[in-house]
Design brief:
It comes from Candidatus Pantoea deserta. One of its GO terms (molecular function) is aldehyde-lyase activity. Pathway: Amino-acid biosynthesis; L-methionine biosynthesis via salvage pathway; L-methionine from S-methyl-5-thio-alpha-D-ribose 1-phosphate: step 2/6. The structure is a single chain. A hairpin with a 3-residue loop joins strand 7 and strand 8. It contains five helices and eight strands; from the N terminus they run H-E-E-E-H-E-H-E-E-H-E-E-H. It has a single domain, classed as Class II aldolase/adducin N-terminal domain (L-fuculose-1-phosphate Aldolase), CATH 3.40.225.10. Helix 2 packs parallel to helix 4 and helix 3 packs across helix 5. The protein is α+β, with helices and mostly antiparallel strands. The longest helix has 25 residues. Helices cover 35% and strands 20% of the residues.
Length: 204
């Protein structure tokens, strides 16, 4: 059996995300790097659980231009930013889950800091539960260009990995390929659920 192409792997990941309810009501957006110049990004307003190959649009990473003239996700500028900031990134997944949305509002600092969880080792390069994983938290903004500039400035001063949260919005994460991005998403979602439950219990 032939190996699935990166785009077919992304379509399968989108169906998996949809089945988990992690991108409700057409929310979220996903992409895969096509080559050094282009990425393929999900079209706006589509249910992520039923996407097909035809629902992905070629976008130029350097300029956000769309050769076909079709309408990609509203957050196109965040995907292309990630591909520019992280040359090893091969796929980006943006979801709207309860855990990431709630924690992004509860956490008042500039990053959600995770430590002491064995599942931190689901993230590439993490070797111990004793290492701290810091996921930046940015205020949401409908001006995607301005938001991208803030994220880029933060990354220049404070390098980070895996993903970031937007307050009241959700998680954007990535990996070297679709498989790693998917593992990072599942690992981070588990960690977020643990952290949310921990904070609830400590508040009792």
């Amino acid at each position: 059996m032939s190996q699935l192409s990166p785009l077919d792997q992304l379509v399968a990941a989108c169906h998996w995300i949809g089945a988990k309810g992690w991108a409700p009501a057409t929310g979220g957006n996903m992409s895969v790097r096509e080559d050094g110049r282009f990425c393929l990004l999900s079209e706006s307003g589509k249910d992520k659980g039923s996407l097909t190959r035809d629902d992905f649009i070629q976008v130029e990473i350097a300029t956000n231009s769309v050769p076909s003239g079709r309408r990609p996700s509203a957050e196109t500028g965040l995907h292309t930013l990630i591909y520019r900031l992280f040359p090893d990134a091969g796929a980006v997944l943006h979801t709207h889950t309860v855990n990431s949305t709630v924690l992004s509002r509860v956490e008042k600092g500039s990053a959600l800091r995770l430590e002491g969880y064995e599942m931190q080792k689901s993230l590439a390069g993490q070797r111990s539960h004793l290492e701290e994983v810091a996921i930046p938290v940015f205020d949401n903004d409908q001006d995607i260009d301005a938001l991208a500039q803030r994220i880029e400035a933060y990354a220049a001063a404070t390098p980070f990995r895996y993903g970031f949260l937007l307050r009241g919005h959700g998680l954007t994460c990535w990996g070297r390929d679709v498989s790693e991005a998917r593992r990072h998403l599942e690992g981070l979602e588990f960690l977020f659920e643990c952290e949310r439950q921990r904070r609830l219990l400590e508040a009792l």
